[in-house]
Input
Amino acid sequence: MNDDGRKTMNGEIGAIERRKERLDRGIKVRTEGIYAISSWEEVAYLALPRLILILGILLLPFLMPSLYWNRVISIVGIYGLLALGFDFLAHYVGLVSLGGSLFIGVGGYLAAILNKSFGLSPLFTIPAATLGGAILCTLLILPALPLRGVYFAIVTLMYPLVLFRIIEALNILGGTDGILGVASFPNPWVEQYLILFVVIIALFGLRRLVNEDIGLVFRGVKDNDQAVKASGLSITYYKAIAVFITSALGCFGGAYFVHIYMVAGISLFALDYSVIPIAATVIGGGGTLVGPLLGCFILVPISELLRAFGTLRIVFYSVILLAFIMFRSEGIMVYAQRKYHQFERWVKV
Amino acid sequence: MSGEPILQVNKVSKAFGGVQAVRDVSFSVQAGEVFGIIGPNGSGKTTLINCITGFIKMDSGKVLYKGTDISNKAPNQIANLGLTRTFQIMRPYYSLPAYKNLIVPLFSPRARRMGGWRGGGKLGDRGTVSIDILEEIGFERDSFVPYKLASSLPTGYLKRLELARCLALRPDLILCDEVFSGLSMSEIASMVPLIEKLQMDGITLVMIEHRLRELFRVASRVMVLNFGEKLTEGPPEEVMANEKVKEAYLGSEKLLDYTFEA
Output
């Protein structure tokens, strides 16, 4: 592993040749994920990045105290859940899903219906929409599970477009006006911290999950589904579980969104929810789970800051994305993790 | 050889478009024996295994395993009955360390039901169990090898990993698709005792092989396929003496002499 990133470089004219050497910091043992911890420094070495992340997320509403930015943080959280789900499905199960807007839409409309028609408070509508929506989305995607790669992506992209048109054409569920007057949260603190806690739990929960035994089965499905079949496990079943987890995250986001804006409209099926998570994954670093989340924390506020430029912001947005794909295609977190776990030094050759 | 055979294959046929890959092949395997399947390239050996294990739907025919009909069942259902297979082109999970590769089969309903591993069973530590299995199959326990990513393992270990995946399911029958191919002579020499040990443990083996000398050391009966059809079946010496087999499979007598050199 030490030799991976070794670079050679010529010194000045006539000088001795030097080489950059990269070494592991040495508390990783034998394999990924097993560490030998013998001192407080090493505990801190492992725990500090996680603590900074958690505290950073929790303190964010204080760092950006205006009402406007608090709302932006909530939206970041929703995109963050979608991006976590996308990264989980794409890099740990091997399903490229464009179903973000499907999850948001189904979860959002369910929560709105439960609130308006049955008078349930957000305390009940959000869990119910999360579970019910996840079951519904899983059932919708079930026929597409044997498909792979771009075919699966197309099917998941088709559903939000179809539901959008159905609601528009049949004028059901409020038609183009949407369902208005959905109840809001009892107070802004609950509203703000609900999403932040769920994001943190989802992040660390998923990170744990992919290293549990069932997570290894998911990764097996991605690496080699034939071998999983030969191991006596039904790949459709495990794919369905993974889709259920992802859609639960998305449906929670949708239900939450409806309750903060107090309206469920067909814009819930907007393609942003499918596309921005992918962009965030590219920027943050796929397969790290935390990367896509950070990607959302970068992308969504940038998109807000660029709002002053009107439609021109799409251009800036694209340029940023393009730069990442061309110059740092591994993503921020993959790069940062490597820098953190290895140190570099110059050695004379 | 007596009693009901553990595997009975009746007139299995499979065509890919106009190509008849397997035509009316029947054979039966007794519990505890090593049964060889040989034949020239493209004679339908792997297709036959794919049909038996459910990876390909067969056009017609019937497969009985321990008396129950398993024709065209899903591969995972068949594996859960204890009929496992290895792949000719190895199929490890490249992004996982070798020992974590085995956690997937250990997670299967069959492995969980059977239990019985040291520290295994329903709530046991699958990591420990998989290291045990890997040691049994020839991975050095106290070295780095079981912890290495499967993508960095050499072919010999990957072939063993294929067998280990089958063993993790506590199988009664393993269909081995060319476990010796791609290995060096010394690696093969260390694999043969492994096969013999599996047989002594009471596991029935069906082996597709091109390495005839090694196969004939372990196999009690051999079936020869050519162009998807069964040519003959019997003890190795008898089969290789068959004129049709010489013609179809070996082509010349020189190669035949070489086979029995040992």
